[in-house]
Amino acid sequence: MEKVINRVKAHTKYTLEDGTLVPGVTTVLRVLNKPALVPWANKLGLNGIEVGKFVDDKAAIGTLAHQMIADYLRGMETDTSEYSKIQIDQAENSVLAFFEWEKAHKLTPILIESPMISETYGFGGTVDLIATINDEPDLWIVDFKTSGGIFPEMFVQVAAYRQLAWEHELDVRKTRILRIGRTPDEGFEDKPVNNLDKRWELFHHALCIYRIQQEVKNG
Q1: What is the bridge-based pairing of β-strands 172-180 and 139-145?
Q2: pLDDT per position as a tens digit, 121-169
Q3: Closest of 113, 25, 8 to residue 62, by C-alpha
Q4: Of the candidates 182, 65, 175, which has an alpha carbon nearest to the alpha carbon of residue 125?
Q5: Does residue 7 form part of some domain?
Q6: In a domain, 190, yes or no
Q7: Measured between alpha carbons, how far is 125 from 113 in angstroms, rounded to an integer?
Q8: CA–CA distance, 131 with 4 (Å, rounded to integer)
Q9: Is residue 3 a part of any domain in this protein?
Q10: Looking at the 3D structure of the chain, how many domains does it have?
Q11: Which domain holds residue 112?
Q12: Of the candidates 79, 58, 69, which has an alpha carbon nearest to the alpha carbon of residue 8?
């Protein structure tokens, strides 16, 4: 059996201008209830699959797929030497799904895989892509997902990314989630995100809860 390499992108640290460490968007969103995770994990266990190793492997595939797409958009080659053949094959399936979507969406990238900080609200995040699409003037955030589905917290995530873009003087008005499958038959799922103001409000509340939890934990 081929060895599976659990190589996951190092956790990005976000700091304010004064050096204060602040949480990332995905860290903040852990405070939200995710009811789908319990039956999913139970199903893996019943099938004899160790959840931790499974999650690490899928995260590595997602990391590689993101890197391949970012490098493609930058006109660069991706170093895959630290990944297994299985992981490379599945990441390439995701990239092929992206290519299929791209055929109908002419992209002009503005920012690619760009970490950003909110000095106003005290959080950070790395936006997959900010671009114009099909030569229209509007700026889009495109968030790539290699997960098995599109879940509610993902919509909140892109609303937080929009806030980051605004604070960096990027007038993003539209966002979408692009789920790109890890197998040839999954293809892609493209979901524009609406109600961004309300989703941002939800993220802001989650950020407040996260901070209170940290104060209680450290107090």
Answers
A1: parallel
A2: 999 999 999 999 999 999 999 999 998 889 899 999 999 999 999 999 9
A3: 8
A4: 175
A5: no
A6: yes
A7: 10
A8: 34
A9: no
A10: 1
A11: 14-218
A12: 58
Residue 2 lies in a domain: no
Q: How many CB atoms lie within 10 A of CB 34?
A: 12
Nearest 10 degrees: Cα torsion 4, 7, 8, 10:
170
- At residue 32 the predicted structure's pLDDT band, cuts being 50, 70 and 90, is confident
- Residue appearing with tokens 């204060």: 20
CATH assignment of the domain containing 189: 3.90.320
Taking Cα atoms as reference points, which of 180, 196, 177 lies closest to residue 188? 180
| Entry pTM | 0.84
How confident is the model at residue 147, as a pLDDT? 84
Parallel/antiparallel/unpaired status of strands 123-133 and 14-15: unpaired
Round to the nearest angstrom and report the end-to-end CA distance of the chain: 48
